[in-house]
Each structure stands twice: as C-alpha cells, then as structure tokens.
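R.M. (postdoc): so does anyone remember the format we settled on? I'll just put the structure tokens first.
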C-alpha cells in the first residue's frame, strides 16, 4: 500500500475537490461550494495522504451550518455519488473526527459508508474509546450479507493496520478478535479473505505460535480456507518456519541441487533490472512439494545489509526432475526503500533453506 502512496496523494487535487463540491450541491443546494473549495485547495502539496483525507471533513465541518446528525443526513446520499472509492473514505474520517459523541449513529454511518470505500481507519477510533462494545458490534458485522461490511470487521480490527495506529489490546491478545476471524475463515469473497489473511499475518509478528496452532486446527479441504492459511503464513514461510511450511505441504527438507545460478547483468545502475535464473534438480526418486523464494541483501547507508525475501514459485517437483526458473527484478527507487551502491548478495531459498548464492553490484 505504501508504494502506491504518491498516486493516492494525487487523487486529492483541485479537480477532485470540484467534483465533491458539485455533488454536495446536488444533494444539498445551499452548500457553500466557493468557501469549501477555497479551504480545501489551500496548501495541498504540503499535506500527506491521510491529512488530505481529513481535510475534506474539516472543510465540510467549517462550511456546513448544521449539527452532526444533520450533516450525516447529507453525507449519506453523497457517498454513492463520489467517483473514487478512496476519496469516499473521507466520509468515515469525518465520522471519526466529529461523531465520537454519537456512538450509535456514528457506527451505523461507518457500516453504511464502508460499502463505497472503507471505514477501516475510522472504526479504530471507536475501538480505542469503547473496545468491548465496538468489538461486539464488529462481530455482528462479520456475519453481514454485504462483503464490504464483513471485511470491515476483519480489517478494522487488525492489530497492525498500515497507515493507522496499532490496536494494542488485540496486538497483546489475539483471542479478542478470534471469533471474527473464525466467522470469516471460509468467506465466499476474495476481498474478505485477503483481509483475514492480512489480519493473521499481522498476528504472526507478535504471536506466531498462536496463529500456527489456530490454522493447524482448521480443515484446509475448503480451498477458500486453504487460500487464507497460505497467505496468512507468508511471513513465517519466508522465514523458513517448519510448521508453517508443513501446513502448506512443504515441511520436508529439500532434496535438490541448484544448478547454474546467474544474476545478469552483474553490474547495474539504479533504475535498471536484474534477471535471476537457475535450474532446480531433484536428487531423490520421490516427488517433493517445494516453496522457492529468493532474497536480496540490500546495502544500507552504513555499509551493512538488510535482507528482503521475495516469493518466487511453489511447485511439486517429480523425482529426478529438473525445472528452470527465472525472475526479473527492477532495482529502482521506492518510497519504502532507498538504494545504496555496493555488492548486493542474492540467495535462492528452498523450503526456507539457503541453497545457492550469487550477487550483483549497484554502481553509485
């Protein structure tokens, strides 16, 4: 999500604010569009994505001569008229900023607004202020007929939701959200299943054994549940955790050889692409389930390195078989990573074991 931040920031521009003002005038003709636009467009380049999202609600609050409940009556018909699901998240943000005093109306509004974008950030403020009441309501949402509402139950209660503060109580005790996850572990919606997997992956950062025990108790015959399990365990799989690998059928030690590992070109400049290629050959007569990853040791500013593991391929390799694998990787500047010149080691990992290494040099 963070890699897309610059593009998301550009969503909130003068044209978008003009659209919001036009749609507000359509649902509430007395709306002060001129005053709204003057405030909304002031100093946009200096604001972050989340600050821009909050800017809309603050401007509405400033120009609408109505109380909170009356404003909600206007925002309800506005929600389906907005031309961006991300922009519509400014409506839940308004609720979190100005509606903490009206719990029932605000939570009902968040449930409604989430259908047009997501109320995942806003609902966390209510969890922080009234945890038990809000968790009970979100448990009910996990059984809702609407997939957006069900996803809100999982996504909003994630302990480590990106771009938001942590939910310390859930981070300390994952059982507090366990009933929500249990309701959704075979959900029909991929949108919901992705959230459940991300929620569980969050928990593996603090309570890996708890997540492993939970998933080991699931029946993975349902492909929807099996999909969640695989993606929930992705961080542990990258770390070579044997229990996690066993859950997806790749717990055995790999009986293979890595042949002719190459990284081309061996010397690059920032912005260029490397290609990793090799062959993996079985050394046993038995078929093997293999999780193949690769890792890059990125050089840091002080000359030390930081390792990042990337998914490559999951395959079943027949006995004595050999398969060729390649992957291109762009070495470019990202908002999440700054590159430094030097020798970058590249490793091939099979079922969590480092079996071969090479390197490329990044020029200054």
């Amino acid at each position: 999500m963070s890699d897309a931040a610059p593009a998301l920031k550009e969503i909130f521009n003068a044209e978008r604010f003009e659209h919001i003002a036009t749609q507000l005038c359509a649902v509430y003709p007395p709306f002060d569009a001129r005053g709204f636009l003057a405030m909304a467009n002031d100093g946009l380049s200096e604001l972050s994505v989340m600050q821009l999202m909050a800017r809309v609600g603050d401007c509405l609050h400033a120009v609408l001569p109505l109380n909170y409940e009356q404003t909600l009556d206007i925002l309800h018909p506005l929600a389906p008229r907005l031309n961006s699901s991300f922009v519509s998240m400014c409506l839940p943000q308004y609720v979190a900023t100005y509606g903490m005093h009206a719990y029932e109306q605000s939570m009902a509004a968040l449930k409604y607004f989430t259908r047009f974008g997501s109320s995942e950030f806003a609902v966390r403020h209510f969890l922080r202020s009234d945890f038990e009441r809000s968790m009970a309501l979100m448990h009910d949402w996990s059984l809702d007929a609407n997939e957006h509402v069900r996803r809100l139950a999982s996504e909003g209660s994630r302990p480590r939701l990106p771009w938001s503060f942590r939910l310390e109580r859930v981070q300390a005790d994952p059982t507090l959200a366990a009933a929500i996850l249990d309701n959704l572990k075979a959900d029909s919606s991929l949108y919901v299943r992705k959230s459940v997997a991300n929620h569980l992956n969050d928990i593996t950062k603090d309570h890996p054994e708890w997540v492993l025990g939970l998933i080991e108790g699931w029946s993975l015959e349902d492909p929807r549940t099996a999909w969640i399990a695989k993606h929930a365990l992705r961080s542990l799989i990258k770390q070579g955790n044997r229990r996690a690998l066993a859950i997806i059928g790749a717990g055995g030690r790999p009986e293979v050889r890595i042949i002719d590992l190459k990284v081309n070109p061996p010397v690059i400049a920032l912005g260029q692409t490397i290609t990793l290629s090799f062959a993996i050959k079985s050394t046993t007569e038995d078929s093997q389930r293999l999780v193949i990853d690769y890792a890059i040791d990125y050089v840091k500013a002080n000359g030390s390195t930081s390792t990042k593991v990337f998914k490559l391929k999951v395959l079943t390799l027949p006995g004595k078989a050999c398969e060729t694998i390649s992957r291109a990787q762009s070495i470019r500047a990202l908002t999440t990573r700054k590159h430094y010149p030097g020798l970058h080691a590249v490793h091939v990992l099979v079922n969590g074991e480092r079996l071969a290494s090479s390197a490329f040099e990044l020029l200054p």
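R.M.: ...and that's the designed sequence above, right after the tokens. Also worth knowing: Residues 49-63 form the longest helix (15 residues). Residues 1-6 have pLDDT under 50 and may be disordered.
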